[in-house]
Amino acid sequence: MTTHHVGQRIREVRKIRQLTVRRLAERVTISPSLLQKIEAGTRNPSSGLIARIAKALSVGPDRLTGQPFINGSEREDQVQAVIPELRRILLTYDNPDDLPVAPRPLAVLAAEMDHVTQMRQDGQYVSMGPLLPGLLAELTHVAHTARGEEQQRAFWWLARAYRATNSLAHKLGYHDLSLTAVERVHWAADRSGDPLMQVTAAYLRSGAMIRMGAYGSARRLLEDLEQEVERLAPEASLSTAQLAVQGAILLKLAILEARDGRPDQATQRLAEARAAAGILGADSTAYEMSFGPTNVRIHEVAALIDAGDTEQAVARLREWGAEQDRTEWELPRDLAKERASHHHIDVAAARLAEGDRGGAFADLATARGISPVHTRFHPTTRTTAAALVRLDRHSDDSVAAFARWAGV
C-alpha cells in the first residue's frame, strides 16, 4: 500500500517552489496549522481547496491528486485501453478516418447513445468505455454526411456522445482529454440548432473552470447562461427542460461561491435553485441535468462542506432525516447512482473532518455499494481512505482492505 497522498504531493511541490508552509498558507488564505495537517495527511482538503492550492503552486489539481489512477484492477478491466482511441477520434473530429463499414442509421445510434447515457449516470464507466469510440466514429460520419434537419439531429446526438466522453475522461483523471471533449461538445452543439444544447455545452465548460480555480471566469459565464435560459423562454414561462438546465446552473453557481469563500452568495443561489425545484415539482434528468428537490439538498450539503462547515453539513442530514422519521436523510432509490455515490463520498469526508471515523467508513462503503467504479476512481475516496488507515489505531482489516481496493 502506497503512503503517497495529496498532502505529500503538496509538500513536494511546495519545496520545489521554495515556499515555506506559512508563505503557501498565506497565498491560499488558510492557517499554517491547517496546511501542516493536510501535508501530514491528518486533514482532508476539499476539492475546492485542492484547486486553490494547485493554483498557488502553479500546477494542475491532478498533479496534487495523482490522477490518472493506475493499478491492477484498472489493467484487468482494460478501462484505460479506450483512451488512446478516444484521443484519436477527438483529434480528427472535423476530418474523420474512413469507417470499415457504413455507419448505422441515426435512430439506431441514438438508441445506443441513450443506453450509454444511462450507464454514465450509473457510473458504469468500465462497461461504457468500449462503446464510446465506435459510437463517436459513426455519429461523426453521419453528422458530416447528412443534410438539413437530419444533420442537426446527428450533431445533437454527437454532442451527447462528446459529453459522455468528457465524463469518462474526467472520472478516470484524464483532464486534458476531458477539456478537449468539452470543446467538442461546444462544436457539435453549435451545429445542432438547439440553443439549450449550446447552453449545456457552456455549462460543462464552466465546470472545468471551477475545477481549475478560475472562479471569476466561471461566475461570469454561468450568470450569462442563466440569463440566456430566461431569454429562451417565451413570456418568462420556462419549460421543464429549461427549468432543469437553469436549476443546474444555479447549483453550479452555489458550489462556485462556496469554494470562493462567499457563503452568503452561495446561500442565495441555493434559495433560487430551491424555488426553481419547487416549480419543477420533481427530480428531472432533462438534458442530462440531475435537477430537482433532491439535488438541491445534495448541493446544499456539498456547499457547506466546500465552505468548511462540515458540522452544519452533518447536522442538516439529521434535520432532513427527522422529516423521514429516520436518523439521517436517505436519498431516493431511483436517484442516478453516480450522483448518489458522489454524495456519500462527500459526506464521508465531512464525517472524517468531524472525527467520526466509523461514520466516514460507513459512507464510503455505501458509496461503493451504489456505484463501485465511480467510488473507486474518485480522488476524495482515496484521500479519505488513506486518512482512515493512518488514523486507525486498531488495525481494522476492513478499513485496510477498502483502502487497498481503492488503490491507496
Please characterize this protein's 3D structure.
With 408 residues, this protein is mainly α. The chain folds into 4 domains: 1-67, lambda repressor-like DNA-binding domains (434 Repressor (Amino-terminal Domain), Orthogonal Bundle); 78-193, no CATH class; 197-308; 337-408, no CATH class. 72% of the residues lie in helices and 0% in strands. It has 23 helices and no strands. It is globular. The termini are close together.
Largest sheet: none
Strand content: under 5%
Approximate helicity band: over 70%
Number of distinct helices: 23
Question: Structural class, please?
Answer: mainly alpha
How many β-strands, per DSSP?
0
Q: How many domains make up the coordinates? A: 4
Order of helices and strands: HHHHHHHHHHHHHHHHHHHHHHH
Shape: globular
